[in-house]
Amino acid sequence: HSADAHRTDLMTITRFVLNEQSKHPESRGDFTILLSHIVLGCKFVCSAVSKAGLAKLIGLAGETNVQGEEQKKLDVLSNDVFIKALISSGRTCILVSEEDEEATFVEPSNRGKYCVVFDPLDGSSNIDCGVSIGTIFGIYMVDGHDPTIEDVLQPGKNMLAAGYCMYGSSCTLVLSTGTGVNGFTLDPSLGEFILTHPDIKIPKKGKIYSVNEGNAKNWDGPTTKYVEKCKFPKDGSSPKSLRYIGSMVADVHRTLLYGGIFLYPGDKKSPNGKLRVLYEVFPMSFLMEQAGGQAFTGKIRALDLVPKKLHERSPIFLGSYDDVEEIKALYAAEA
Ligand code: AHG
Ligand code: MN
Ligand code: MN
Ligand code: MN
């Protein structure tokens, strides 16, 4: 067909998910409806973030969250929008957010079969200086009975879908429903996410490592050895480049597209590191595996972890398959 058929054959995220759904004849479109509400939330946050500076939406909200972090106005606004959008979808029964100490149990009349875990605004420390931030989400199925907190404490390998939306130079939504990873870019003139990165595969090995070297004093042996190897390779190969943005969504998106490794290790001060299992580690690990990479906690495959608490943290090493293999070998040697 004509050269610019793709320009008229718009593959929106809704159409893409409907195509996926058609592969499951038994499905009644619930997932598609849930996703359309998550997409609505992302469009709202994208718009709020882009005019945050103008609309006095920067700075602190004056509260502190369960993480002990001072909440930014955008943290609170994004959280409110996602909670309301997810409840109004009528397809969720439990919601877990970084910004809420307790899980939200949707009242029975509006309850669906999905549990959504999410970080409404990731990289909050970067809001006021205009560096990319994002939203991260993961979706579990909860079977029929009255939902309890145990229904949320599932290993990441049980997730049906995971994704993130990055609010940067463009608004990019990266999603996996378990059969690979696809990237969509928001066309503001249409208000639609259009497929721009079909079937993303992470390079098998990368030339970039991404870690907050400011924590080096407290790192354990294997992490110290690995970073040393990146900087002073013994095999005559050239040193890796260091890229660290400080928003997990941005660091992971670059790792997914360019290859390399992202590390948030544990250390003497925080043995479980900083990143939260349910709504940061699991969704990003799910995406990395779906793109042909891997994700490791320093002990086990990240998706095999079974969380005991909602806001539990874990060290995480994720990215190109071969790069993560190297750090796994260093931890195995130390075990
Ligand atoms: P959040 O803004 O949702 O609390 O997450 C911030 C996280 C993550 O985005 C990033 O990778 C990490 O904090 C950066 O931590 P450091 O500043 O300690 O490097
Ligand atoms: Mn936070
Ligand atoms: Mn976060
Ligand atoms: Mn956050």
UniProtKB/TrEMBL annotation:
GO biological process, alphabetically ordered: fructose 1,6-bisphosphate metabolic process; fructose 6-phosphate metabolic process; fructose metabolic process; gluconeogenesis; photosynthesis; sucrose biosynthetic process
Domain Fructose-1-6-bisphosphatase class I N-terminal: 11-198
CDD domains from the UniProt entry: FBPase
Localization: Cytoplasm
Keyword Amino-acid biosynthesis among UniProt keywords: no
Position of the signal peptide: none
GO MF term list: fructose 1,6-bisphosphate 1-phosphatase activity; metal ion binding
Domain of life of the native organism: Eukaryota
A family per Pfam: FBPase_C
HAMAP family the UniProt entry points to: FBPase_class1
Name of the featured protein: Fructose-1,6-bisphosphatase, cytosolic
Lineage: Eukaryota, Viridiplantae, Streptophyta, Embryophyta, Tracheophyta
